[in-house]
Write a structure and sequence with these properties.
This protein is an alpha+beta fold. It has two domains: 81 residues, no CATH class; 158 residues, Reverse transcriptase/Diguanylate cyclase domain (Alpha-Beta Plaits). 59% of the residues lie in helices and 15% in strands. A five-stranded mixed β-sheet has the order 2-3-1-6-7, sandwiched between helices. A two-stranded antiparallel ribbon has the order 4-5. The N terminus and C terminus are likely disordered.
């Protein structure tokens, strides 16, 4: 019970309630202890001043402890968020992605692998701070155009993976085309000037109970075909077109 109460010390109101509860416990304990160790007449005569003294000592200490517990809670929440979210873009980390993907259940999903076009050149031309801003901009567009229960993760660099729940391959391709258009129509502002940004997308199906890694590999193959076909587009995984080794020029990007 005490542990549950400690875990709920999060806000200023919680701190006050914690301090009041602890102070009340200390006062009651001091009264009980007084009657146990002192004669009843002496215990009654010192009841009020003794209780006031106990309250004056307990209240500030309990309030300080409550503030410390609230600070620990906020720090734990920040660490938990950092563990599961990419610090730059705010989307899921790779580890968090796989943990949540394991809980998808028996539903059909579409997997999308997205990659910003010519991002190395963008970084080289405008600088790494501008590249970071472009990544945040890109991730914000992905998040604002997906549903709350869809998964969005940054897998590294400029590559992102999305899982659209309860979505067919056809609808997943339509969503990727829509995202492609949103990126194209939403330049990133660098130094007060709008800089164009495009991305390529690969789409694959994740059947109920299917292996997420296989779906990601298939979507990645489709992404490379989108890159090879001119970028700024979406492609659906096709065994006939996407089998075989990747071209070295694309595999190295």
């Amino acid at each position: 019970m005490q542990m549950a109460m400690l875990m709920q010390v999060r806000t200023r109101g919680d701190v006050r309630r914690f301090a009041m509860a602890i102070s009340a416990i200390v006062v009651i304990a001091s009264i009980v202890l007084r009657y146990l160790v002192l004669p009843s007449d002496l215990a009654g005569a010192t009841l009020i001043p003794g209780s006031m003294m106990a309250l004056m000592l307990a209240a500030p200490i309990a309030y300080a402890v409550g503030q410390r517990l609230a600070a620990i809670h906020h720090l734990s929440a920040q660490l938990e968020h950092a563990l599961h979210h990419d610090l730059l873009t705010g989307v899921c980390t790779r580890i968090s992605f796989y943990g949540r993907a394991a809980q998808l259940g028996a539903v059909s999903c579409a997997v999308i692998v997205a990659d910003i076009d010519h991002f190395k050149g963008f970084n080289d031309h405008y600088g790494h701070p501008a590249g970071d801003q472009a990544l945040r901009h890109f991730a914000a567009i992905l998040a604002s155009n997906c549903r709350e229960d869809d998964l969005i993760a940054r897998f590294g660099g400029e590559e992102f993976v999305l899982v659209l729940r309860n979505t067919t391959l056809t609808d997943g391709f339509a969503a990727a085309c829509r995202l492609c258009q949103r990126i194209r129509e939403s330049p990133v502002v660098i130094g007060g000037r709008a800089r164009p940004l495009t991305a390529s997308f690969g789409v694959a199906a994740l059947p109920p109970g299917g292996a997420i890694e296989i779906a990601i590999q298939q979507a990645d193959r489709a992404l490379y075909r989108a890159k090879r076909s001119g970028r700024d587009r979406a492609c659906v995984y096709d065994l006939a077109q996407d089998a075989g080794p990747l071209p070295l020029t694309l595999a190295a990007e």
